[in-house]
């Protein structure tokens, strides 16, 4: 059994809550961080049908993309669908957690997943939500342990510069220390000044990876007390954004057929202004507010869930094509993304992970 808090901490290493928008409501919606669970259900929307599915499966945690509670509620009663879901979830000991815009913005989230699905290259952010700061981490390591510490830090993301990993700098020197009473030194004796050949090992670490890099570095280092420094840098070369844009030369009709096949869609709606696309933007869910962002990034086409009638008019006036997948249809991959993230975690804790089989898009072709 694993606690709800442990699962949320794991999910938020990929979809940090700080990436969510102010108007959103990501996080634990119903339940307790301390509850223990052995079964999880992943879905796009929490409906009454999905809750019944969780009860039948014995799942004690639902992870949804769309929040169950979006805006403030003044009462919880069984004469509304939302009220019944909350009441029944509590009665059955089911926790409900949402990763909405945090999953839209994250590089591990829906938009990057869709971009990779259709083979976009040179992918960049469409509307920057957050720039990530960088730190320089410097640690002093005895000669025989340099490679161990370097690998431990690199495995957690230290030393990534563009498409290069393991970017470290090392210089050898003499370190000194005198263990005091009560110390258990790896080298030397209590009360005696020790001089050791050490390496000053340094590397760049992005803000979101700093905590895990330090934790891993301390675990790999042999000393009881590790001497290390952390410097804040002015570099701001990483970003998290809502939507992505990338390059691929493809016929409009070919791209539409490809999307239908790869996403298993019966139909898409499209407003096509050019026969050939060279730069394509992607915004899952509602993309209306990012039409101009896509245009100013030079996109020929915006693939999104929906933009509405006026969004189509705006895009046409900019000579930009729109492919509407459907709101649910553009975000249903959330279930597969989260399921795959759990691949290693569930083995470690024998956690059962279920994909919801409830389709929460209720429109059909007639």
Low-pLDDT stretches: none
CA gyration radius, whole angstroms: 25 Å
Number of domains: 3
CATH topology of the largest domain: Udp-n-acetylmuramoylalanyl-d-glutamate--2,6- Diaminopimelate Ligase, Chain: A, domain 1
Mean pLDDT level: 93
In total, how many beta strands?
A: 17
Q: How big a fraction of the residues is strand?
A: 25-35%
CATH class call of the largest domain? Alpha Beta
Provide the CATH architecture of the largest domain: 3-Layer(aba) Sandwich
Strand order of the largest sheet: 7-12-14-15-16-13
**Largest sheet at a glance?**
6 strands, mixed
> H/E element string?
EHEEEHEHEHHEEHEEHEEHEEHEHEHHHE
The chain-level structural class is: alpha/beta
> Superfamily at the CATH H level of the largest domain?
NIF3 (NGG1p interacting factor 3)-like
Which bin fits the share of residues in helices?
A: 25-40%
Number of alpha- plus pi-helical segments: 13
Shape: globular
Q: N- to C-terminal separation?
A: 46 Å
Protein name: GTP cyclohydrolase 1 type 2 homolog
Family: Belongs to the GTP cyclohydrolase I type 2/NIF3 family.
Keywords: Metal-binding
GO molecular function: metal ion binding
